[in-house]
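User: Reviewer 2 asked us to show a designed sequence for the structure in our supplementary figure. I'm pasting the structure tokens here. Could you produce the per-position amino acids so we can include them in the response letter?
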């Protein structure tokens, strides 16, 4: 009987130690004191590359990732269509991008004017456009590729469109 009690105490002690280790690791990861790649493409997604501009030539779209951007922040930019400029907001999911156009012309119930599935590379993002949700280009583009530029370099040498 004594041996059974002793083994129960050992199991309880091991469970307590395991829970403590789990809690400590969770706190460290939550506060970003240890890197956690909880999802794919963590280090190459635009919102994890502060101080960059992502630009597409055709169609003419850009968005900015300012310093100290969190993954929950929408990224702001601009879209040029038929010579008119529209302010946009970009939100990113694990493998998806959603573009909202801040103009009543492209207003939708959920606020999303274009969405698509992303392929991430260190210097570019390729968005496979969901043509059913595209109310801006009406299916003209099957893919939109955004190329990364350093924000300071662009700001100092090639100002954004005014």
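Assistant: Here is a per-position design you can include in the supplement:
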């Amino acid at each position: 009987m004594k041996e059974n009690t002793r083994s129960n105490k050992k199991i309880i002690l091991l469970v307590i130690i395991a829970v403590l280790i789990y809690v400590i690791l969770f706190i460290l990861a939550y506060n970003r004191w240890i890197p956690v790649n909880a999802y794919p493409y963590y280090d190459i997604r635009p919102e994890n590359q502060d101080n960059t501009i992502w630009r597409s030539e055709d169609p003419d779209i850009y968005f900015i990732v300012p310093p100290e951007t969190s993954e929950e922040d929408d990224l702001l930019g601009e879209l040029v269509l038929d010579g008119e400029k529209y302010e946009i907001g970009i939100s990113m999911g694990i493998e998806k991008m959603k573009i909202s156009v801040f103009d009543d012309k492209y207003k939708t119930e959920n606020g999303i004017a274009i969405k698509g599935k992303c392929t991430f590379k260190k210097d570019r993002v390729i968005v496979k456009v969901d043509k059913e949700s595209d109310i801006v280009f009406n299916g003209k583009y099957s893919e939109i590729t955004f190329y990364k530029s350093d924000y300071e370099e662009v700001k100092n040498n090639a100002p954004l469109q005014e």
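For the response letter, you might also mention the following. The helical segments are 2-30, 151-157. The longest strand covers residues 84-92.
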